[in-house]
Design goal:
5-stranded antiparallel beta sheet, 4-stranded antiparallel beta sheet, 206 residues, alpha+beta, single chain, 2 domains, 9 strands
Length: 206
């Protein structure tokens, strides 16, 4: 027996949600000419945002099944196989060293072409408590931990928080690998890390 809940997200979107066991989420758009229930992949950022709006920040209004628009198809009442056996995520293209010449040159100054850097993530505390949810987004990068920690402590305010994450980058064949120690609510990609590092190295060279 599954726990099925229904939510009206009119505060933030034009969608209604069906949540099964507080994990499997389906969305249908009231503005669509032909609305249909769409399964939200739990591995994606949209699922994180919707799940937080419903269960963490309480921004969606809980409704009954009878409150769903009359033109909607019947809501899901079971977990479809494709939601249990998720297809593999698309493979991202490798981060080629030739695409990041400044980073590759920097790595060449270290033994094994490998070094640890420090990624600072930003959090809007108002959004975390009263808005859409808790999200940590990339802010900047430092090459040494002490300077990164000092920046986080100096920059924090009543509304802004900063979180430090270690990341080891290294050349592996023709590619650059980023081994980033992500935690809950972190939203940062390897490409963003290399872009920020490229900007940091450019600043240091001028």
């Amino acid at each position: 027996m599954h726990n099925i809940e229904y939510y009206d997200d009119s505060w933030d979107s034009s969608c209604f949600f069906v949540c099964i066991d507080k994990y499997y989420i389906f969305a249908a758009d009231r503005k669509s000419k032909s609305p249909k229930w769409e399964f939200i992949d739990p591995r994606g950022i949209r699922w994180d945002a919707v799940h937080q709006r419903i269960y963490r920040n309480g921004r969606a209004d809980k409704v009954s099944k009878e409150d769903l628009p009359a033109n909607f198809p019947p809501p899901p009442d079971s977990i479809p196989p494709e939601a249990i056996n998720l297809p593999p995520l698309p493979k991202e293209a490798p981060l080629l060293a030739e695409t990041y010449p400044a980073v590759t040159k920097y790595l060449g100054t270290f033994q094994n072409h490998s070094v640890e850097i420090y990624v600072v993530l930003f959090e809007d505390l108002y959004e975390s408590e009263l808005g859409d949810g808790k999200f940590h987004y990339p802010d900047c990068i430092f090459l040494d931990e002490a300077t990164a920690e000092a920046y986080c402590n100096k920059s924090k305010t009543e509304n802004d928080a900063y979180h430090l994450r270690k990341c080891r980058i290294k050349v592996h064949g023709l590619a650059i690998l980023c081994e980033l120690s992500l935690q809950s609510f972190d939203h940062v990609t390897d490409r963003q890390v290399l872009k920020l590092l490229t900007e940091k190295l450019s600043q240091l060279s001028t």
